[in-house]
C-alpha cells in the first residue's frame, strides 16, 4: 500500500534532479539540489537529522518504510519539530509504506541523499545497494556490526568511489565542546608534549561511557523497538557506542592522518557481558508486554540478558588504547549518560569527567606541573574560544571553564554533522582521511567482537 502524508503542505520544490549524472561526476555543485530520503527509520537519530532546516535543502523528504510503530515515532518527532513555537521546521514528509519500500526507493530516485538510522542488521545492505544505485548516504552508526558486515562495508566504499557518491557516518561526538578542546590540548606540544605510548595496564588513551535504555528524547520518553535488545539486529555493545569512542581516539590523537587498518590497528583483548532487565522494564521502554521469539535465547526466567557491555584493549600506531561501554536501564534522577576520557601526554593529561562532582555534566581538566596561565598556547586557545578560562584546582589540576554558548547539546550535534556533510557534497569529496579512518574504526570494533566471542 502506498500512503502519502503531508506533515506541512508546501507547494515549492527546490530545483534539481535527485541523481543526475552531473551530480555523480562532480558532487552536488548547488546545495539547492539536495533532496533527502529517509529509509526505514527505526532509530530516533533519523528524525534528529531533521530537527533543523538547512539552506538549499528541499523541505520535501521522501520516506520509504514499512508501516508500524517505528515509522509513526519518526513522523511524530518530525511533526513536533514542525509545530514547536521557537524556530519551527518546515519539513514536508512524503511517505511510501508498501512491502517493496526499498525497491521502490531505488527505482523512484526521488532524492540524492539517503539518511539511514535503524535496524543495524539491515543497514549494511541498505548502504551497499544505495551507493550501488548512485545515491549519497548519510548513515547513523554503526555501519557494520560484525566481520561480514565490515567486508561488505569495504566493498561499499569502493562502489561509492566508483560512482562518485559520498558515504559518511554520523559522528556527533566530534562536536561536543569538551571533546573538541581535549583534542586541541592533546595537539599542543607546549601544553601537552607528546602522546605517550602507554601499556595494556596503563593505556595512553582511555574512554569509558555509561548509557541507559530508558531516556527522554526531545522532551518525551523514548520508545525503543523490541529488536533494539537483540544483538543480532542492534549489534553487541562492542560494535555500537564504542564506534564513537574509537572514532574520537583516531580524530583527537591522529588528526588528519590516514590510517591503514591492516597495519595500524591491532586488537589485543576484548570482552563482553550482559545487562539484565526485567519484563516490566522491557515493557516500560518498548510498550510491549511480551518478549518476541527472537529474544528467547537471552531470556532466563522473567529477565532478559542483553550483551550491551564491552571492553576493547588495542593499539593504534603502537599507542595503547582502552574503550569500554556499559548500559544500565535508567539513570538516577538528575543524571544521564556519562563519559570519561583521558589522553596522556609527556607534559600533561587532558581529562574529561562527568560524575557527581561535575553535576553529571562533562567537564574538561588538564593535569600538569606547568603554570598554564604563562603558556602562549593557552592564550591562543582563549582567543579562539572567547570566554574560555583555565582555573587551578590544586595538586596540578586545572579546570577548563567553558562558556555556556559552546554547550549546544547532543541533539543539536546532528545538525552540525549534517551541515559538514552538505559542505562535502558541494565540494564533491570527503577529506582524504575520512574513508580510510572509517574503515579503521569499524575494523577495530568488529575485530573486537570476534575476539570477545571466541574468548567468552
Briefly note the structural class of the backbone.
alpha/beta
Secondary structure: helix percent: 25-40%
Please report the first level of CATH classification, the CATH class of the largest domain.
Answer: Alpha Beta
The CATH topology of the largest domain is Dihydrodipicolinate Reductase, domain 2
User: Could you tell me how far the N terminus lies from the C terminus, measured between alpha carbons in angstroms?
Assistant: 46 Å
What descriptors fit this protein?
single chain; 456 residues; alpha/beta; Rossmann fold; Dihydrodipicolinate Reductase, domain 2; 2 domains; 10-stranded mixed beta sheet; 6-stranded parallel beta sheet; disordered N terminus
Folded structure, characterized:
It is a single chain. The radius of gyration is 22 Å and the shape is globular. It is 33% helix and 24% strand. Helix 5 (120-132) packs parallel to helix 6 (147-163) and helix 6 packs antiparallel against helix 14 (434-455). A hairpin with a 2-residue loop joins strand 11 and strand 12. The longest helix is centred in the C-terminal third of the chain and has 22 residues, at 434-455. The chain has helices at 21-26, 45-48, 69-83, 101-108, 120-132, 147-163, 177-186, 189-192, 242-253, 261-264, 279-286, 376-384, 410-427, 434-455, and strands at residues 36-39, 60-64, 92-96, 113-116, 136-139, 167-169, 205-214, 216-217, 220-221, 265-278, 299-300, 303-316, 319-330, 338-344, 348-353, 363-368, 389-394, 397-401. It has 14 helices and 18 strands. It is of the alpha/beta class and 456 residues long. Strands 7, 10, 11, 12, 13, 14, 15, 16, 17 and 18 form a ten-stranded mixed sheet that branches. A six-stranded parallel sheet has the order 3-2-1-4-5-6, sandwiched between helices. The protein has two domains: 21-169, NAD(P)-binding Rossmann-like Domain (Rossmann fold); 175-412 and 451-455, Dihydrodipicolinate Reductase, domain 2.
